[in-house]
Every structure is written in structure tokens, then in C-alpha cells.
Amino acid sequence: MAKKATKSKPKPTKKGSTFKLSKQNKIILGSLLMLFSIALFFSFISFYFNWQDDQSLLSEFKDRNELAKNLLNKFGASISHIFMYKGFGLASLILPFLICITGIYLFLGLPLKALFKKWIWGLLFIIWISIALGFFATSSPLLGGLIGFEMNDFLQDYAGKIGVLLLLVFGLIFILVRLFEITPEGISSFFNSRKEAISTEFKASKERKAAKDEDTLSTSFDDDVPIILDTYTHKTEIPHLEKEDGLKDFEINTPEPEETLAMEVEQVIEEPEEIDILANKLVDDFGEFDPTLELGNYKFPTIELLDQHGVTGGITINQEELEENKNKIVETLKNYKIGIAQIKATIGPTVTLYEIVPDAGVRISKIKNLEDDIALSLAALGIRIIAPIPGKGTIGIEVPNKNATIVSMRSVIASSKFQKAEMELPIAFGKTISNETFVVDLAKMPHLLMAGATGQGKSVGLNAVLTSLLYKKHPAEVKFILVDPKKVELTLYNKIERHFLAKLPDSAEAIITDNTKVIHTLNSLCIEMDDRYELLKLAMVRNLKEYNTKFKARKLNPNDGHKFLPYIVLVIDEFADLIMTAGKEVETPVARLAQLARAIGIHLIIATQRPSVNVITGIIKANFPARLAFRVTSKIDSRTILDTSGADQLIGRGDMLFTQGNDVTRIQCAFVDTPEVAKIVEYIGSQRAYPDAYELPEYSGEDSGTSLDNNVSERDSKFREAAEVIVIAQQGSASLIQRKLKLGYNRAGRIIDQLEAAGIVGPFEGSKARQVYVADMVALQQILDNE
């Protein structure tokens, strides 16, 4: 009987060990504490005015008819007597403030951990003030309370008055240093700064006085001369002198044009330095620009919104299965006279990697060709041989586990690798064969191509990508454009429209499902790209990160059109459907964005279930170095998406291969279920949002017809014949005109545009034939005669 190598049992959680208040109960309890603190405060204040009268009645308070002079009557007199007289005296006034702060924290739902420190320091203050007042007011316990009075008496019996005084001084130093962080250097710098401020003010006052005297003197001589203030330099202009008798003409030297030009150039050269100085001053005064301030109270989704699927204690190792697979691999290779010098196993969530070192002289291609034979001996769903493993002198054989472990999105998001990731757009895909969290930066990919057969995990992969970004980025930092031709996969994200989504100005829905809107959105995104490049050129930077850093440092003027630019992530769920219906109209802007948009923070994620060459063309592949393949049906599809085989050997259910242009990594995609995504978007959507979604530039689709087409005199000589062909066939296409009238493609295209302008055929609809608006030849004749 084989034993398991490790057993990891989750620790049982004790029910009822944690006490949590609901939001309503926190508001109620907080209100109670705030009102109670107000009552205590007025009771304590009233004690010092009425304590003598009320103290004599304390024993008679059981009598209902007796009244106390305290503002809160018998309750106030009793509780103030306990705290002020028998307690800590004047120091007890700190207690209502502590209770009030606690109530405020509960009422507003703030974290209560910070309260612990406030209470510790508050109690230390109460004790120190009580002892200090008891030390200086020895005649009566009213100021320091009975506790302060008795503690002084006790301490003086052992340390004397000087000892108690030294203890009080030490307590004061402890409080000043630890709480207020006062140091000798700080005190010295404070007095030095005050000294400098006084001396500066004294000098300034002397200068002002001298200037005033000078002004008085000058105005006494020049009362009749008007003083003109230059609005640019703020200096007084020298008035023109009138020529008097006996006064010779004098010359006024003005700079030559070349000298003036040199002065202007010098001024322009100095401007960047002045901008930097101004920017530094703005940063000193206001701090760096923070784009998140508009939604300053935004709270990131909590880890509790995600479920812990599968086993929480990690991967359970089945030693018997490992031994059995190892023996079968060795035996199969031995049958083909291939000796093994060493073999070891690395266990992952769904796949185990067996690394083998063959004997000297064994050809690697010989082992590679035995892929099907090893799969047969192991009775596995599909194995993958890596010969050799990059960076290692071994050959890898990946064998699916009989009992796969689900990788939850929660475990991936909670991992330190993701939490501490210093990336612009971190994406946690899942876990590798070595059970390590796999995190990549979308900003460095810079675009991602996803493919896989139906039901193999593409939609879950897209949700994992979006969830990663929602957990890591503020709404001000990233915006999504979601294209969902299937109309059901991405509709959940509608709830975060005003937080994270971008759309066209006239669009009602942020999730794009209509093909026409897709074309307009892609072209609008191209306009956004061009606008951003123009801003980068004016700012003299190379990429979005440098631009935003410069903008945050207040070195770019918003009056010149500069603004903080968020990252934009375009997600297309089913690219093949768009290519089928719109063709070049979609492929052209996608290719243009893929080529140019990486520097200005626009990144594309394209998914398709049909990775054929007519969908994923060479232009698109060339600009998508990052590829992600789920299980596909054939080796051809695998080579189309990855440029290598292997995706056809995956086992499905989130098993995927990822490449970024070099090595291929096998990953088990993190599982995030639809209810989890719903909870996340609900959490974000319930918070304060921007007034509207992020607006893309307006794009107006160009009409096929032009004013020239409507001009009857400019029509093609074959226009009437073409119209008759179209109406008889009831099919509006340029290819039909080509065949019937034996025309070239360009001429047939111009005629079809003229037919559209004349109202005979409808607008362009992608790969579909245009709709014919004229039912028969009689109607056509009427249209042509009326023109």
C-alpha cells in the first residue's frame, strides 16, 4: 500500500470565535458612544461648579424627589464623582474624547485597528496628567483626583519629591519623543528658522521704509510727470523729455534688429528651465498631480469576493501514480533501446513534468517520435514532449494527472508574486507546472492573441485577465473597450461602465455587440491613437509612462490640451465572426493599432475559437508576439497560433500554452466563475463613479456614395445596363456587374456606388450582398425617367 508523501489538511476554523458587527449595528453603537461621550463631558465640566452641593446629596440619591445641580442631574453627579473625585481628576476629561472617537470610527465604518493606539496613548496621558496635578496640588484631590493624590503619596514615600519630579519629567520626554516625534535637532531647527524669519522680516521692513522714503523724494521733484506702468515688465516707463531752448539733441540707443532677435532667442532658450522651476514650485506647493483624487474614496475589490475552489491545502501528491508513470516511461523507452541515466518529476495542478536525462549517444529526435507510443503506454489523454527543455540539459515529458487540482483565482490574486508585482498592467493567468503563480505585464507584451476550441476556457481566460486588472488598477488608470459579438460573455461588465469602460459619444451601451459599432469604435480608437501621439510629440517624450510621469510632475500645461492618459485595453471576444462579416474594415484598423498603439498605452486582446490563416493573418500575427493557446483540434491550428505544435495535445478545462516570442510555458488557467465576476462588478459598481464612461473621439463613417455619384451627367455609360442587371437578379454586388457586363473591378465598384447614391441598392454590409430597393423593371424605369 503506497503512502502519500505529504498530507496537507486545512486547519479547522472555530465557529463563533470571531465577533463581527453588521453595518447597521455599528451605526447604532457608534451613535450611542458619541452621545454618551457628550453626556460625560457636560457631567465632568458641571462637577467643578456644583460638586460641593451634589456631594452632600450622594447618599440621598435613592430618594426620587432629591435633585442634583449637575447638568445631568443624579446620573451626572454620580459618574462625575466617580471619575473626577475618586478617579483621575481633570485628566478624566480625556475619556469622553476617546469614547467619542471610538463612536465616530464605528459610525463611519472605519477600521478599528487604529483605535488601539489612540486608547493606549490616551490612558498614558490620563495617568501622567493625574500624577502631575497630584504632585503640584497637594492640598486637595480635586485636580488630580484621588488616584493621582494617592499615587503621589505612595511614590513620595519611596522616591521623595525630587524622585517623583524626575519620573514626571521622564514621562513627559517619553510622550514628546514617541508621540510627537520631537528631537533636539527639530527644536534647534525650529528656533533657527524663527530667528531667520525675524531677521528677514526686519531687513524687509528696513527696505520698505527706504523705498518709501525714496518714492517720497522722487515724487516731490516729478509731480508733473505721469508715471506709466509697463504691463509686461511691471517697470515704470521713462517719460519723453521735451526739447527746450539751449538743450542739444541727444541720441536714444535702440538695439538693432539682429540684437533684438538674439535677445528673443535667449529668452526662448531659457523658457524650459523656467518651466522646470515653475513645475518644481507647483510640486512643492501642491504635491504631484494625483489622477485618482476624483474617486479618492474608491475601494479595490476584496479577496473575499472570490471563492476558494478545490483543495485549499495545495496539491496532493499521489506517490503510487508517480511511481507507476515513471516505470511505464522507462519501460517504453527501454523497448526501443533508449537508456535513461536519470529521471525526476515536477508535480503541477493538472500536469506532471517528468524530466529525463538519456544515455550518451541517444538522438533526441528518436524520443520525440515516440510521443504516441508513450501516450499509449500511459493511457493518458495526451502527452507533450519537450525536447530539449530550454535552459536545461533534459528532455521533458508532460503527463496529465488522473485527479486534476482546480487553480482558483483567489489563490492567484492572493499570491505575493501578484500583490508585489511592479508592473504597469499585471495579469495573473494561473499556475505553472512547478505550481508557481504566472504573472505577466500586458504593457510589455504589448498585445495578446488568444485561441482555443469551444469550451476549452477562452472566456474564463478573458475573465481572469479582466479580474487581474480590476484588482490592481484604479479606474483613473485603465479603461476597457469590450467587444462581444456573442452578446452574452461580457455583458456582466456593464455595471462598471462609469468606472472602467470606454465607449463612443453617441453609444447607449458600453459593451459593443453590433458589427457596425465595432468598425466605428476601431476607427475612433485610431483617432485616439493619433491624438495621443500628437500629445507625446508636444511633450517631447517617447511613451505613455514618461508622458504621465511628466504630467504628474506638473511639467505639462492642461491649457495646451495636456491631460492624464489612462491605459486603454481593447478586448475582442470572437474575432473570427468580425472577420467573416466585416473583413478588411476590421482587419485594417486592428493591424494599424497593433503596429503603432503600444507606445501610447493602447493594448489589444483578441480571442478566437477558429485560429485559421484567413482569420489570424500574417499582418496580425507579426504584431502579436504574445500568444495564448487553449486546446485546439488539429496540429495546423496549433502551428497557426503558436508557430509550433503542442496545443492539440492539451487536456482542456483551462490547460493552456503561453509564449511571448521565445519559450512556450504550460499553465493551468485560474478559474473564476460567473457569480464571482458578478460579485466583483457589483462591488465596484455600487461605489461612487465618474459622471459618464470614458469617451472616445467621435467618428463619422464615410458614406460610399459622394456628391459626384448623384450627378446624373457624371454617371458611367454602363449605369443603366448595370441597374437592369441588378434589378433582374435582385442581388446588389460589384462582382455580378463584373461578370455580366465584362467590366474591371474598379469600374464595377464605382457603378455600385452610383447605384447606391441613386437609391437603387443599399449600403455596404461586409461580405453580404447589398440589398436591392427596386422591385422590378417598371419601378426602375420610373426612377430613371424622373431624374
Quickly give the structural class: alpha/beta
Number of strands: 17
Estimate the global geometry from the Cα principal axes. extended
Query: How do the strands line up in the largest sheet?
Result: 8-7-16-15-14-9-13-12-10
Strand content: 5-15%
Spans of 5+ residues with little confidence (pLDDT < 50)?
A: 1-10, 13-18, 214-270, 702-709
Largest sheet: 9 strands, mixed
Overall average pLDDT: 79
Alpha plus pi helix count: 26
Could you estimate the helical fraction of the residues in percent? 40-55%
Backbone CA Rg: 41 Å
Distance between the termini: 95 Å
How are the SSEs ordered, and which strands pair?
Layout: H1 23-55, H2 73-85, H3 94-108, H4 113-136, H5 145-178, H6 184-221, E1 228-229, E2 236-237, H7 257-286, H8 319-335, E3 340-347, E4 351-358, H9 364-368, H10 371-378, E5 384-386, E6 395-400, H11 409-414, H12 416-419, E7 426-432, E8 437-441, E9 448-451, H13 458-472, E10 478-483, H14 497-500, E11 502-503, H15 515-539, H16 544-552, E12 567-572, H17 575-582, H18 584-596, E13 602-608, H19 618-622, E14 626-629, H20 635-642, E15 655-659, E16 664-669, H21 674-685, E17 694-695, H22 707-710, H23 719-729, H24 734-741, H25 745-757, H26 777-786
Parallel strand pairs: 9-13, 9-14, 10-12, 11-17, 12-13
Antiparallel strand pairs: 1-2, 3-4, 4-6, 5-6, 7-8, 7-16, 14-15, 15-16
Helix pairs in contact: 1-2, 1-3, 3-4, 4-5, 8-10, 15-18, 23-24, 24-25
